Amino acid sequence: MKQFILVIAVSSCSVLLAVTPASARSPIADCTDAIAAGDRAGIKSAAERIERENELVAGIFQAEKCLSLAKGEPMRYDHSSSKFLPDAEYEALLQSRRDKLQSAREEQARKDDVEARLRQEQSARRQAVTLRTVEACNSLYGRDWVTAMTSQVCQPIFMDIGLPD
After folding, report:
1. CA distance linking residue 137 with residue 145, whole number of Å
2. 136: closest CA among 156, 123, 124, 154?
3. Is the sign of the CA dihedral 134, 137, 143, 145 positive or negative?
């Protein structure tokens, strides 16, 4: 299986090598050549260059393969930090980001719940005040209808719900 992947990586880079001048060769191409030649020192040198120069645009997959072989452990490229990380560290970083995102979502849900509860309480208070105001206006109307009808508080209520009699 490793040989099959290596052949694919070597053949995919050979197209790049044919059009790339020797002076502007990428460390990924150098690593691919070193892998094909079995040159461990060349692999390590190219891997160090990949880490140092961070030339990744078209060859992240090949760079991961090269670094994995050079370091003896799976390596992954993290786009957020623009770094190659060991697989376990990469997975831990992803999990940390997922946890932070989940925490932010839970915090937002808590805030939304508090705001909804406060709106509900405010609505209940407004409704209680409105009911008591209607009762007071109806009571005032029963005692002194002229005062109730000319009241700036009661008149709009009577216009909306009608007279109590």
Report:
1. 9
2. 154
3. negative
* pTM for the predicted model, two decimal places: 0.47
Over the range 53-62, which residues count as b (16 or more CB within 10 Å of their CB) and which as e? eeebeebbeb
Q: Other CB atoms closer than 10 Å to residue 95's CB: what's the count?
A: 10
**Among 88, 89, 84, 4, CA closest to 46:** 84
Amino acid of residue 147:
T
**Where do we find the tokens 């009241």?**
151
Query: pLDDT (tens digit, 9 = 90+) per residue, 141-163?
Result: 999 999 999 999 999 999 999 99
Burial class from Cβ neighbours inside 10 Å (0-12, 13-18, 19+) for residue 125 reads exposed
> By CB neighbour count within 10 A (0-12 exposed, 13-18 middle, 19+ buried), where does 145 fall?
middle
